[in-house]
Amino acid sequence: MKTRILITGLAFVSAISFGQKKEIKKAEKAVKSNEYSEALTYLGEAEAMLGSADNDMKAEFYAVKGEALLGSAGSDFKKLKGAAEAFSTSISLNPKIESEISEQLQNLRATLINSAIKDQNAQQYKMATDKLYTSYMVTKKDTSDLYFAAGNAVNGQDYDTAIKYYQMLLDLGYTGATKEFVATSKETGQVEAFENENIRNIAVKSGEFIKPESRVTESRKGEILRNMTLIYIERGDTEKAKALIKTARAENPDDVFLMRADADMSYKMGDNARYNELMEKIVASDPENPELYFNLGISNDQLGNQEKALEYYNKALELRPDYEAALINLAALKLSGEDKIVEEMNSLGNSAADNKRYDELKKQREQSYKEALPYLEKARAINPSNQNVLKYLMNIYSQIGEDAKYKETKAKLEALEAQG
User: Fold this and answer.
1) Could you name the domain of life of the organism this protein comes from (predicted)?
2) From 1.25.40, 3.30.300, 2.60.40, 2.40.128, which CATH number describes the 221-286 domain?
3) Consecutive sets of 10 residues in the chain, 420 residues long: mean pLDDT of each?
4) Is-contact 330 314, C-beta < 8 A?
5) Highest CATH level, class, for 10-158
6) 322-420, which class in CATH?
C-alpha cells in the first residue's frame, strides 16, 4: 500500500515538473516573438506549480520572467524593477545563468541608468535614487550605481538613505578608482580616455592620437567620507561627524577631499580659525582653484580679517575674472563700513567741528561707493538679471548723483520684477 502511494506521488511530481517546463518553454518562445504579455500569461500558469521545481528550473523561470518584464516595460519603473528582481533571483538560484542573460542585464542597466539621468536632470532625485539602486541590486557588482544612488539621495535630502548607501560602499571597500587608457589627440592636443586598451591602441595606430598611457582615476573614498561627515553635521550628530573625520584623516592625512570635509565641519561648527588653517593647506594642493580662494575670502571676512578677505577675493578674480559671487562679495566688503559711517553722521551736532567731521565722513562714504561700483557694474554685465546687484547699484547711483544711471537701473529692475 505504501509502495503504491509513493509511486503515485512520484508520478504526480513528474507531471507537475513537465507542466512547468512546458509553460516556461512557451513563454521563452513568446519572448523571442516579442509577445511579452502572452509570455507573462504562460509564466503565471507555471508559477502556481513552481514550489516543487528544482533550482535550475526556477532559475530558468525567473530569467524568462525578467526578459518578459523588461521587454514590456518601456519606461514603466514598476516593471523594470520587477525585471531586476527576477534576474537577481535567477542568478542567486543558478549563478551560471548570468552569462546567458548578460545582454538582457546590460539592456536593463542601460534603461535604468538613462532613465535615472533624466530624473536627475529634472530634479526628481527620489526616482533617480531608486532606479540606480535597482540597477546595482541586479548583480551587486556595478558599485558605481550604488555610489550615484547615494549622491542622488543627498541631492534629494534623503540623508538616511544616503548614509545607508555610503556605508554599504565603505563596507564593500569601494574607492571608485579605475584604470583608464588614454591618448593625446593630435588635432586638439587634449588627453582623451578610451573604453578599453584595444580601442585606445587602434586610435593610436590610426595616427589621430599619440602618447598612449594608462592612469588611475582619483579615489572617491574621501568624497564619500566628506559627504557622510556633512550629513551627520546637518543632522546635529557632531560626535559621529568628529569620530568619522578623525578616523578618515588618520588613514589618509593628505587626502584633499577629507581635508575639505574637515574644513567644512570646522566651518559649520563655527571654528573659523581651524577652517582657515585647513583651507590654506588645501589651497597649497590646488593653487589654481578660484573657489578655494573665494571660500577663504568668506571665512576671513567673518573673522574680521578684511585685508585677508580682500586678498583672497582678488586672487579668485585673478584666476576667474567673471566670478560673479567674488565681485559681489568684494563690493559688499568695500561697503561694509557704511553703517558705522551713517550712524556717526546722524549722531553729530551743528558745531563747526561736527560739520567738519560730517564732511569727512561724507567723503569716506562716497569713496567706498566709488570703490565698490566697478565690481558691481562688472557683476551686472556678467548677469544682468541679478536683482540684488541692481538694487545695490540704484542706491549708489542715487547717493553719488548719477541720476541718468539711477533711472536706467531702476527701469531695468522694475521690468525684471514685473516678469515675476
Assistant:
1) Bacteria
2) 1.25.40
3) 39 43 76 80 75 79 87 89 92 90 91 92 94 92 93 94 95 83 84 82 86 79 84 85 84 78 81 85 87 84 84 93 93 86 85 87 87 92 91 90 92 86
4) yes
5) mainly alpha
6) mainly alpha
